[in-house]
Write a structure and sequence with these properties.
It contains 9 helices and 12 strands. The chain has about 280 residues and is α/β, with parallel strands linked by helices. The protein has a single domain (about 30-275), classed as Rossmann fold. The chain starts with 13 loop residues before the first helix and ends with a helix.
């Protein structure tokens, strides 16, 4: 008969706990005692520059429009762009209960290292352990209160911080963001393999900068080459959640502080998929 494993055993070892259903949960950081989050969705990319933060912001806005209580944890500590996207210049504050996140015009709660720095342009020159501990602190010490969805804007790649998020925060799933380039297949598979190895569900893939639509004839021009997103999604066994074109209106909205007021149906399928997790 197989020996029953008990995580409460003070003499617990790696071998005795291997495969125990409680061992993974025991690694999770406890959320702030004044907070409750129903679903946590990570937004990841295998490489930088594909618009991961942009997709995170769009998903947050679309979920908020449906009446959900939404927060964004900006885990991209060395490259935080979420506050700039939402035109936030005020700094986060704290009280005896913890750190108070800032809110966008429409009530999305945001915590980012740029809300703590004296100047937004100040670089974050930290080593891996400090970066990882900051992400844990954003989960543990921020007063998120009651949220239906928390979106975590992950740093690109498969390094220390993504690993910390996967191990320390109870993710309900991830969305992989990519772009139509030749290296995409390898990069996406790296991100998906990391998630699969840690039993994190992959909700699907979003392709950003998918094409440019001609303003005169409406033809889709694939400036980065033919999209392979459908093929890649089939290879890793997930669905395509959306294809976002390059549109100057998005840039204009961000520059004018109107990002929350964009009009787009490109991520409707992604929102429906996320809603099914609730």
């Amino acid at each position: 008969m197989e020996e029953q494993r008990d995580c409460s055993n003070q003499e617990c070892t790696k071998s005795s706990c291997e495969g125990c259903e409680h061992s993974k949960k025991n690694l999770y950081e406890k959320i702030n005692q004044y907070s409750s989050v129903k679903q946590v969705i990570g937004v990841v990319s295998g490489k930088g520059g594909v618009g991961k933060s942009f997709v995170t912001g769009m998903l947050a806005v679309l979920l908020r429009r449906k009446g959900y209580k939404v927060g964004i944890l900006d885990a991209d500590i060395t490259g935080p762009s979420i506050p700039k996207m939402f035109h936030m210049s005020q700094k986060a504050t704290s009280n005896e209960m913890g750190i108070v996140p800032e809110k966008t015009d429409n009530g999305i709660k945001i915590m980012s290292v740029n809300l703590l720095l004296e100047h937004a342009e100040d670089p974050v020159i930290w080593r891996g352990p400090l970066l990882a501990n900051t992400v844990k602190q954003f989960w543990r010490d921020v007063i998120w209160e009651d949220l239906d969805y928390m979106l975590i804007d992950m740093p690109p790649g498969t390094g220390d911080v993504p690993l910390t998020v996967f191990q320390s925060i109870p993710l309900n799933g991830i969305v992989i963001v990519t772009s139509p380039q030749d290296l995409v297949s390898m990069i996406v598979k790296k991100a998906s393999h990391m998630a699969q190895s840690m039993d994190i569900p992959i909700l699907g893939i979003v392709e950003n900068m998918s094409y440019v639509k001609c303003p005169d004839c409406g033809k889709e021009i694939q400036i980065f080459g033919e999209s392979k997103i459908e093929q890649i999604a089939e290879e890793i066994g997930v669905c395509v959640l959306g294809r976002i074109p390059i549109e100057s209106v998005f840039v204009k909205n961000i520059e004018e502080g109107l990002f929350e007021y964009f009009s787009s149906e490109y991520l409707d399928d992604a929102v429906i998929k996320i809603e099914k997790q609730l």
